[in-house]
Amino acid sequence: MIIVPTIVSPYFLSLYNIQALLRDRAFNGIWAVVMSILLILGDLDLSIGKMGCLCGILAGLMMTNGLPPVVAVLITVALGAFFGFINGFLVTKLRLMAMIVTIGMKSVYAGINIVLTKGVAVTGLPKGWLFIGQGFFLGIPIPFIIMLAFLAAVTFLMRFTRFGRYTYAVG
After folding, report:
1. Fewer CB near the last or first residue (10 Å), C or N of the chain?
2. Taken in order 10, 138, 30, 128, is the CA torsion positive or negative?
3. What's the pLDDT tens digit per position in 44-55?
């Protein structure tokens, strides 16, 4: 996957392209960490991508409508937890199959995303806030640094806390 593009294009291993790849893959990395915890527990959630998109859209809409960014993010985290709770409730309390529930909820979240945005990107975010998604620290994209910090925190949680040890024992 690296050798052929490098041979075909002299631009593949450019600094710009590597930074773009790191930024783009950071979001998938965060989803992969979350999904790994679910797989350790013997379950899965196929809706996390659309749920994450919905949370991003909601945060963006709140910010563009005048809510302070920190407040918007805190509300969004609470909403994300609530969306996860809905999935968990349907699977654990109603004893529905996780795959079926999360495929269905994926469609629900995707539909809400389209209705909220009318298929148009949310723009006009506060300038200082754009740094989180577009900025760099020592040439490394900020989303990639956030993904590494998230991975480190989850690794610590899973290896060195009671919750993590219990999760491994259950899974």
Report:
1. N
2. negative
3. 899 999 999 999
